[in-house]
Amino acid sequence: MTHLFPKVFVDFDGTITKRDVGNAFFRKFGNEAESLKLVGKWKSGELSGSDLLLKEAEYVSVSEEDALKFVENFEVDSSFKYFLNFCNENGIELTVLSDGLDFYIKKILAANGISGVSFYSNGARFHSLHIEIELPYESDCTKCANCKGHQILMNNGSDDAIVYIGNGFSDRCAVQYADVVFAKDELLRYCEENNITYFPFVTFDDVLKKFRKVFEAGNFRKRHRAELKRKEAYLTE
Ligand SMILES: [Mg+2]
To answer: Any idea where the domains of the chain sit in the sequence?
Structure first.
């Protein structure tokens, strides 16, 4: 049997950070009541992920400087850096997949001294007090502007065991295709309801403990249902 090596994908908002920065940003500088309504419509499938971002952005009024000041104080899970170090020391690729915006991901990672992490997210460009949303990764799946399931399909090889770590609604497509899932909050409930095997976690300390054990035992395996889902997806593309 081929030896599988883990390839790690991690959600950003509410997983690496303690709170959802994107939501907080739109509530603070956009229209809070509208944002709540729009997010509700997105979750019920009435609104695509791209339209959600574009509509929320229409209400935003903030300078780039004030936006950066606001986001830099969002706390990161303090044990994330230990997990990242473990991955780096062992040559394990870690990629952040986010349906949020690039400017705060960059700012928060830098503010916490975290460098060299690659990420795929949506973009935001500031023009005086307005933001322009950029959607470089739109795909056939329109649930999210940056479908994490699509990203996983585009970025893995046959000897990879795909590990996914996340907490929320935009992680649903990702966990379909992941061999090993670490889940908390809303994503944990989704895995429960859909019979997707997962490890629960609260912080990256929990993730690292479990991950290290499986890694050191050379025990990463493909999850049968995820493998079928991936094959199905490649056949229909
Ligand atoms: Mg999240």
So the answer is: 5-236
CA 119 distance to own-chain centroid: 9
Beta bridge partners of 9: 95, 164
Distance 224 CA to ligand 1 centre (A): 25
Per-residue pLDDT at 236: 82
Kindly report the average pLDDT of the chain as a whole number. 96
Listed residues: CB within 5 A of ion ligand 1: 11, 13-14, 167-168
84-95: pLDDT as tens digits: 999 999 999 999
∠ CA(114), CA(118), CA(120), 5° rounding?
125
| Rounded-to-integer distance, Cα 170 and Cα 42, Å | 10
The CATH homologous superfamily for domain 5-236 is HAD superfamily/HAD-like (3.40.50.1000)
Report CA(63)–ligand 1 centroid distance (Å). Answer: 25
- Reported confidence tier of residue 73, pLDDT bands at 50, 70, 90: very high
**Distance from the alpha carbon of residue 173 to the mean position of ligand 1, in angstroms:** 13
218: Cβ contacts below 8 Å, ≥ 6 apart: 3
Q: Which residues pair with 207 in a beta bridge?
A: none
CB atoms within 10 A of CB 114: 14
Residues 170/15, Cβ–Cβ less than 8 Å: no
For the entire predicted model, the pTM comes to 0.97
Distance from C-alpha of 94 to C-alpha of 76, rounded to nearest angstrom: 17
Q: Report how far ligand 1's centroid is from the alpha carbon of 99 (Å).
A: 8
